[in-house]
Amino acid sequence: MSIFKRKKAKEQPESAALPQHVALIMDGNGRWAKKRGLPRSAGHRAGAENFKKIVRYASARGIRYLSVYAFSTENWNRPQEEVSTLISLFIQYLDEALRDFVGENIRVRFMGETDRFPQDLQDLIARVEETSHDRTGMTLNVCLNYGGRCELKDAMQKIARRVQSGELVPEQITEQTISDSLYCPDEPDPDLIVRPSGELRLSNFLLWQSAYSELVFMDVLWPDFGPEQFDEAIAEYQKRSRRFGAIR
User: What DSSP string runs through 112-158?
Assistant: First the structure.
């Protein structure tokens, strides 16, 4: 897996297939702020503003599912002041999402153990999901207090309870059983996972679902990741030959 550095994307024909599901690891806010001599909180605010812009752009481009890695299970290890800033930003931008995404017809879902957050944020998460539930446009998955290993642990516990109740025997457990026990089992796996910031790893993001995802790593920090970079990642995806283990 080599890093895909920024360069001018070649225009793709209109017939080139768009990925149905794109996942974004929103990384680099702190480094963006440090380069400008600003506090890390300023980077998170810039990243949050960029999040709204990219969501709208992805929807306009015709992406059906967009998953964003907003707060991982490991992010609790950051300084308390930074965690508090992030939680305040989630409240602010989710409150705005109740109004802002109405015109875009975007459905918002949340993946992760959100019950660890303050009650006012939990209530807001429930309101956003309920308000947007019947929208028919792009589905936005916001991964909050999310970790791929945690999702798999929760799936295993769900399956274990079915075995314990006699509903299922171990020999009946298949890959589909596991997929059906994940947070959003009704959604397709991501076709494309994009990580800005120059880091070359998934960082515990969508570990089961990413088995056959195309990976694009870009040498640009998240607040500077704009529509041009989104298009570059799509163009790179469209060059790939997806064989899923077969010979074609």
Answer: S-GGGS-HHHHHHHHHHHHHHTT--SPEEEEEEEE-HHHHHHHHHHH
For the whole model, what pTM was predicted? 0.90
Give the pLDDT band of residue 247 (cuts 50, 70, 90): low
Nearest-angstrom CA–CA distance, 189 and 207: 10
pLDDT at 7: 41
Q: Compute the distance between CA of residue 34 and CA of residue 50 in angstroms, rounded to an integer.
A: 17
Q: Which two tokens stand for residue 137?
A: 């446009």
Q: How many CB atoms lie within 10 A of CB 74?
A: 12
Residues 26-76: pLDDT tens digits? 999 999 999 999 999 999 999 999 999 999 999 999 999 999 999 999 999
- Catalytic annotation, residues: 27, 75
C-beta of residue 73 within 8 angstroms of C-beta of residue 113:
yes
d(CA 218, CA 245): 26
Query: Which position has the token pair 């879902």?
Result: 109
Other C-beta atoms within 10 Å of 77: how many? Answer: 8
Instruction: Answer for the pair 78, 43: CB distance below 8 angstroms, yes or no.
Output: no
Q: Which residues have C-beta within 8 Å of that of residue 64, sequence separation ≥ 6?
A: 20, 21, 138, 139
Residue 133 neighbours by CB distance under 10 Å = 10
